[in-house]
Amino acid sequence: MPLNRAFEGREFPPGEPFEVTAESIREFADAIGDPNPVYRDEAAANAAGHPSVIAPPTYLTKLNFHYGPGLIADPDLGLNYMMVVHGDQEYRSIRPVRAGDVLIMKPRIASIMAKGRNEFLVTEAKIDTSGGETVAVARSTIVSRGTAPQEG
After folding, report:
1. pLDDT tens for each residue of 45-54
2. pLDDT tens by residue, 19-28
3. What angle do CA 24, 29, 30 make, to 5 degrees?
4. What order of strands is seen across the sheet that includes strand 84-93?
5. Which residues pair with 91 in a beta bridge?
6. Which of 42, 88, 90, 136 has the largest count of CB atoms under 10 Å?
């Protein structure tokens, strides 16, 4: 079943606030094997010019897992998650994510396009602090394999 093109451009309500803690940053840095002290030690972060420990750039992936299911779970979209592979992920960072930030993700479906038998679903999300400061824009592409309508 092809994806519902009427979803292209659809904006979704912001998700629940996501609190960034020094502990979650450290755990993430440990999980990716990055020993950078600015991810663990306040003094090292301060010496590097940051007000608190900062998160690795890919830390924002945690928000995709936190908010993503609500974005693509609508049955009217027509996405069969069993046929999905991850295509691409990118972040445009405005400033580092810091311990103490409370982040709010505002997602939308940027585009849906067919290439051969596959469809590409591109989502984009503006990530702001609870105070309204934009920290990043996340863009993700998933591939729905073998679902595009075939021309005959």
Report:
1. 999 999 999 9
2. 999 999 999 9
3. 95
4. 18-19, 102-115, 118-129, 134-144, 84-93
5. 138
6. 136
How much of the chain is helix, strand and coil, in % rounded to 5?
Answer: 30, 35, 35
Separation of alpha carbons 38 and 40, rounded Å = 6
For tokens 């009427």, name the residue: 6
Res 147 pLDDT > 80:
no
Please, which residues have CB within 8 angstroms of residue 126's CB and are 6 or more apart in sequence?
105, 106, 134, 137
Cα(51)–Cα(92) distance, rounded to whole angstroms? 21
**What does the block give as tokens for 54?**
């900062």
Compute the C-alpha angle 6/128/49, nearest 5°: 145
Query: What backbone torsions phi and psi does residue 83 show, to the nearest 5 degrees?
Result: -105, 15
At 30, which helix (H) or strand (E)?
A: helix 22-32
User: For tokens 């991850």, what's the residue?
Assistant: 86
Contact 27, 11 (CB under 8 A): no
Chain centroid, CA 146 distance in Å:
24
